[in-house]
Write a structure and sequence with these properties.
heterodimer; A: 420 residues; alpha+beta; 6-stranded mixed beta barrel; 4-stranded antiparallel β-sheet; 13 strands; 51% helix; 18% strand; B: 434 residues; 2 domains; 11-stranded mixed β-sheet; 14 helices; 11 strands; 15% strand
């Protein structure tokens, strides 16, 4: 039985690999080997760190803002005559827009996700300058606001029309009720039972108090100075200025058509103002996330080019070896080695080279990451990215070796008799 | 002798065309990647006023609340209050001084064929123009007005002059805007400083404003507060004047000193000013005046994002891989002509001659690599323009950078070919002659 097993193992292709001569032949070409191992090592370091940065950026790009992004556009109405009345203009515009069949709802607001500007307020559950504060981006919306943005209320109620304050820029009267996002509710009240938060009081900038009237599931801040993008508070206020910005949510799939008709309607309905800065949320999102998209693109291009270069390096060296060992392979074949043995010899060589590269590469990857962490505040590289990069490199090595190894396999034993 | 090496190298390169192109392309790719990422850093961190950037200072004073910080961890705000802007500018302690901020308002040209538009305005003191060497096409700016005295004058950007007056010399003409009549005193030439160091509240590569007005007009006409506005007092009141009297910061304050020697003197003045204000009950925090010259300010504001440096370091590693790759390819290339080298050695060529010949060959390969690199670099820059649309106006082919590319390419090629060349000339000819 034992003998049988040994015979069986002897018939497995890899069992017949003689490692000593392989290592010997690799050591004979120290320089080429060193160059290849270093290429693999650096490739591993760059790919593992690069993939990690790319995946982080993709996380940012994929995170939802909470609003109905694909069906919303914004425009600015700027009055320019002396007798232009911003308040009546906003009221009549919004009333007319809300009547239009293509439009789900509209609201006047200067801030919305991707708009890039808003106030940040410090919120507290207990008033006093020595108490903990939670920063939150503030939105000023009327009772149509959450419908126009397309955010969903998960507890409590929306504002009633009578609660909405119409104010000029300098008026600092504070409303008595607010809506907050679920993330902010958790940060403030340390609970996920949303209905328990409704009706509780919070303090704004240590001076004003307001009651939480409702919780919206998600509404990202217009900009995020400190990574607190999910913390938003909505005040029932409309600020009237000569220039006001309308946010308009259309029925699905007719956004472009509605933009044209709305723009035409607004320009004709009141000649004392002009309509400008018509933009969709999608394009604003593109601008906000532009640097992240650029980073992902640049890193992917660099990593792809690197992979191609490394694969070329492996393939080039292997073909050169096949060429140089033409006669040697013929002799091995003539002495009884079968085609699989020859194939395995080259794969074994490749795996040994890749493994050496990976040992150095893991070290390099960690060093590169430590450098990036200390210089550019990047997070620590998780082990899983190194492991994925290692698997990629083994596959890459095998693929790059495949063609020259197949050529070697087909060298006829008669080559042994020919002189080189 | 060199001509002989050169023709031999060309022969050798053309004999192994595929391999030679591969070596040059590998080098070219690595160099292009490095140069593209380096040019991003280089173009973004360019000195906007190279002849005097070290004498122009951005001023910060810490007028913040005792228990909080305007900018974390404990830095003063980046803008100053109206009171400080006015006091320091009118004290005239520097060669030039100007406080400025961004605002906007409706421009209503008298020509009925020109539709009214919302003009983006920089409200500033007149010394803004000579301090930042703003180029004028027609006319000039205005002098800093004395306190409580101002004229309704305006300087237009070239594009605004084109829009309102069709590009003619409009100096002396009247421009109705903000419900008033302004006299045009100057028209700027093309001016797009990059980075827009004097006010980066809308980003470092944001275009400059349409119209320039004296700062006092902002207060007189109660124009809106643009750019960054930051307050720590609660409930400052509803009046416009209350904002101007408050501790709210909104104004960028810059000065130009006539020489470095004056810096200490100016710092002493500023120290004295803050102490005097402390006596009046302002500036509750420890005095923390910060003067940064233009380049220090750009570095502090991290105009070149950390992404750019990460790209550059990864591209450097990429170049290293390309170098190792080219080195092993060259080793192959030179090994293939071992017998030729052996023959030349046997006929009397010494090791130095063989080495020089190999070196010539690597330099030629480096030049081809540089060409390929430059082509890739140009494509890469187009890619950069589409990836960073805000920055695209500032991307151009920099001649010194192109020369650097060629130099780096040749150097890389020589580095990659060095050890293979040495190996070739060390080899004993006898074995190959049999």
């Amino acid at each position: 039985m034992r003998m049988d097993l040994k015979a069986f193992i002897n018939h497995l292709p890899f069992s017949r690999i003689a490692f000593r001569p392989i290592i010997g032949s690799l050591l004979r070409q120290k320089y080429a080997m060193a160059m290849l191992v270093l290429q693999i090592a650096i490739t591993l370091a760059v790919i593992s760190n690069g993939l990690f940065i790319v995946s982080q950026r993709l996380d940012i790009l994929q995170r939802p803002s909470g609003i109905d992004e694909s069906n919303i556009f914004v425009l600015t109405s700027s009055g320019f005559t002396k007798d232009f009345n911003p308040k009546t203009s906003i009221q009549s515009d919004l009333a007319a827009l809300r009547q239009m069949p293509n439009i789900i709802n509209a609201v006047a607001t200067y801030s919305f996700p991707f708009s890039g500007s808003s106030d940040w307020d410090e919120l507290q559950t207990v008033a006093g300058s020595d108490q903990n504060t939670v920063p939150a981006a503030s939105y000023k919306l009327d009772e149509h606001g959450i419908d126009a943005l397309g955010v969903s209320l998960i507890a409590g109620e929306n504002f009633s029309p009578s609660e909405v304050l119409w104010q000029t820029e300098s008026n600092s009267t504070f409303p008595s009720v607010v809506l907050i996002t679920s993330s902010l509710a958790t940060d403030l009240f340390s609970t996920v039972d949303w209905s328990s938060v409704v009706g509780r009081t919070l303090y704004i900038n240590a001076t004003h108090s307001a009651v939480v009237k409702g919780i919206v599931k998600q509404l990202q801040a217009p900009w995020s100075p400190a990574g607190l993008i999910e913390n938003s508070v909505i005040y029932p206020r409309v600020i009237t200025r000569n220039s006001s910005r309308y946010l308009i949510r259309t029925q699905p799939t007719i956004l472009q058509h509605t933009i044209a008709t709305t723009e035409r309607y607004l320009s004709m309905s009141n000649q004392q103002r002009m309509i400008r800065k018509v933009e969709t949320i999608e394009t604003m999102r593109q601008q906000v996330y532009g640097p992240d998209i650029a980073a992902v693109t640049i890193l992917l291009v660099v990593m792809t080019a690197l992979t191609i270069i490394a694969a070329m390096g492996i393939a080039g060296l292997t073909s050169f070896n096949v060429l140089m060992r033409h006669k040697q392979i013929g002799i091995r074949r003539a002495l009884g080695a079968n085609k699989i043995d020859i194939l395995c010899q080259f794969f074994a060589e490749n795996i040994i080279q890749t493994t050496c590269g990976i040992f150095i590469g893991c070290l390099l990857a960690v060093c590169l990451n430590i450098f990036l962490v200390s210089q550019y505040a990047l997070p620590k590289l998780p082990l899983s990215y190194i492991i994925s990069a290692i698997i990629c490199l083994y596959i890459l090595g095998i693929l790059a070796t495949l063609k020259p190894a197949l050529q070697a396999m087909n060298i006829s034993p008669a080559a042994a008799t020919r002189s080189q | 002798m060199f001509a002989y090496y050169f023709s031999l190298s060309l022969k050798s390169i053309s004999r192994q065309k595929g391999l030679s192109v591969l070596i040059a392309a590998t080098l070219g790719m690595g160099i292009a990647a490095c140069m593209i990422t380096y040019s991003l850093i280089h173009l973004m961190s360019k000195d906007p006023l190279p002849n005097k950037s070290d004498r122009i200072y951005h001023l910060q004073l810490d007028n913040w609340n005792l228990n909080s910080a305007a900018v974390l961890p404990d830095l003063p705000p980046e803008e100053v209050t109206w009171q400080d802007a006015i006091n320091i500018v009118h004290a005239k302690q520097a060669k030039f001084q100007a406080a400025h901020t961004i605002t906007w308002g409706m421009v209503t040209p008298s020509d009925k064929n020109v539709p009214p538009f919302l003009g983006i305005i920089r409200a500033t003191q007149g010394e803004f123009f000579p301090m930042f060497e703003v180029p004028f096409l027609y006319g000039q700016g205005w002098q800093n007005y004395p306190l409580n005295q101002v004229e309704y004058v305006a300087v237009l950007s070239k594009a605004t002059n084109q829009r309102v007056f069709g590009g003619v010399n409009s100096v002396g003409k009247t421009l109705p805007m903000l419900g008033q009549f302004f006299t045009v005193v100057g028209v700027l030439d093309e001016w797009q400083p990059s980075p827009k160091f004097f006010d980066m509240s809308f980003g470092a590569f944001y275009p400059p404003e349409d119209i320039y007005l004296p700062l006092q007009i902002k207060a007189e006409l109660e124009l809106p507060h643009g750019g960054n506005t930051n307050c720590w007092e609660t409930d400052i009141g509803d009046e416009y004047q209350a904002f101007l009297n408050s501790e709210c910061v909104n104004f960028n304050l810059w000065i130009e000193l006539s020489s470095h020697q004056h810096k200490q003197q100016f710092e002493n003045y500023l120290q004295g000013y803050v102490e005097q204000q402390k006596a009046l009950g302002r500036f509750p925090k420890v005095t923390n005046n910060i003067l940064l010259d233009i380049n220090q300010w750009l570095a502090h504001k991290e105009v070149v994002g950390s992404d750019m440096y990460v790209f550059f370091y990864l591209a450097l590693l990429f170049l290293l891989v390309c170098l190792f790759n080219a080195a092993s390819l060259m080793s192959t290339k030179f090994t293939a002509k071992n017998s030729e080298v052996a023959l030349r050695r046997a006929l009397g060529a010494n090791q130095l001659a063989i080495f020089t010949q190999c070196l010539t060959e690597t330099i030629i390969l480096g030049c081809i690599g540089a060409l390929i690199g430059l082509v890739l670099y140009m494509f890469g820059l187009e890619g950069i323009k589409s990836l960073y649309p805000n920055f695209s106006a500032f991307v151009y082919l920099d001649i010194p950078l192109m020369l650097l590319t060629i130099g780096v390419s040749i150097l890389s090629s020589v580095l990659a070919g060095l050890i293979p060349s040495i190996k070739v000339c060390m080899l004993a000819p006898a074995g190959y002659l049999k």
